[in-house]
Amino acid sequence: MRFFYGEVRAQAKTLEEEPQLLVLASGLTQAPLAQGALATRYRHESLYVLGKKLLTLGVCDEQLALDLLAESEHPQAVELVVRQRYKRGDKDWVEARLLALIEDPSCEQVLFFAQDFYALKFQGKRTSTLTDLLRHGEPLAIDEAYSHHVEQGVIDLYRQQGSEALHCENQLWLHLFALCFWDELFTSAQGGVCTEFDVFPSSLRDGRFYHMYRDNIAALFAHCDTKSKLVHHITANATRHYQQPNAFIRWHENLLDPLLLLIEHASLSAIYAQLTVMAKDFINAKDGYPDLMVIAQGKLRFEEIKAPGDSLRRNQLLAIRQLQRAGFEVQVQSVSWQVNPEQPYVVVDIETTGGQKNSHRVTEVAAVKLVNGKEVARWHSLINPERHIPRYITELTGIDNAMVADAPTFAQIAPLLWQFLQGAIFVAHNVNFDYGFLRAEFARTDKNLILPKLCTVRLARKHLPGYASYSLGKLCKELGIDLQGHHRAINDTLATVQLFELIQEQRQK
């Protein structure tokens, strides 16, 4: 039976012509009822796909499409039937159906839709839950340098304000789920066994997991009735099974840190409520979780971060509602691209033995940290490149082999420079050169440098237009910026600071 409905599901997804769809629909409605969890799931998915396609074609009897959808318990089929019947004016039927779904929902997704649609259409609510979430609070002012690292921009802002924030998304809950139920997922002989070649155990894919292990789950929650016991349970599993391949966890040394923060600041009842949702309906509860976990003034909340133009996906909205029902505070936080006066910037310049980051090395680094337009810290050092400096480089920079002979290597200064750069936006003139070299140098010390960055060449072209050349030397001469000893890192950095201040004035306008 499972293979029959699996084949029907595959055909339903691929067929596009009305006659073929009608034949498949007829065969599906006359087939015996599905036996088994997976066959039942395939049947409901087939009914949904067929009904939706026939409805979209709009050339056959609409009632047939609605009948197919009404037979399906697929969450999107339930929603589509209600919406179509409401369009047709069957408001009494829709109201009764919604109330029945609220009273006895098949899953969280159906419950969320039924409650929201009922409030909008029958209780006079003017905006949907989605709209309410998106309207929450004022946008956070984030520099455009974070346009490709929006979540990191919010994290850096919160940390400047004294709050703890970390990126968690789906990994937090998948890791906690796996470490709580490791034995049921990987060692049970009841069909839940999973190897590194499986995506997820079959008991999760077909929805049998909670029914199979209901007693185990209840016993675990009862045993771990304090936070310290839960911490001991997941820590023991992490230690015992570290580096074992699986579909839930990417092992690393700091894996437990966010889980311990969650357990410390959240209630056990909320944690266990969400784990129960995942156990009951893993397919619809495995993803869509908010981007950040934030701890401010000792209180925990989750935040979904949205940049201008972003929208909430269905699974994100469902995950937010699930967490709220479990007892967590969750909000959608929008951001806007603005110059934030409190944002730290680090203006950087380097000198090197040549132009190729993978084969040449750094000979000098200078960095100036700015907050609110003021210098708050400075870092500078010659670097022993551990290789010969070519004559033409010495002629350009004035740095020769004797000058760097007793200087520290990059590996020796890496910890201090790394700390100096953290939490700031990386600014340089032709930024990809400086950033690329430092990223390659840090990689040699097993550190992965990832910072938002701004290029004063690009910004100057945009905000200070009309100059013939945007090289640092010529631009400084045109703008009256004093640049003595060009091609020494500290001198070029201080000149770039002045250039960046002029650009910031225009950006703020």
What does this structure look like?
This protein has helices at residues 2-14, 18-30, 37-57, 62-71, 75-87, 91-103, 108-122, 129-134, 150-160, 169-180, 182-187, 202-205, 209-223, 227-240, 256-265, 268-280, 282-285, 314-326, 391-397, 401-404, 410-421, 431-443, 456-463, 472-479, 489-508, and strands spanning 140-142, 164-167, 292-296, 299-306, 330-337, 345-352, 362-371, 374-382, 425-428, 453-455. It has 509 residues and is of the alpha/beta class. A five-stranded mixed beta sheet has the order 1-5-4-3-2. α18 (314-326) links the parallel β4 and β5. α2 packs antiparallel against α3 and α23 packs parallel to α25. The radius of gyration is 30 Å and the shape is elongated. The N and C termini lie far apart (67 Å). The relative contact order is 0.07. The model has no long low-confidence stretch (mean pLDDT 90).
Number of strands: 10
Major sheet size, sense and barrel closure: 5 strands, mixed
Largest beta sheet: what is the strand line-up?
A: 1-5-4-3-2
In terms of per-residue confidence, which ranges show pLDDT below 50 for 5 or more consecutive residues? none
Terminal Cα separation, in Å?
67 Å
Radius of gyration: 30 Å
Mean pLDDT: 90
Class by alpha and beta content: alpha/beta
Shape: elongated
Q: What is the helix content? A: 40-55%
As a percent range, the share of strand residues is 5-15%
Number of helices: 25
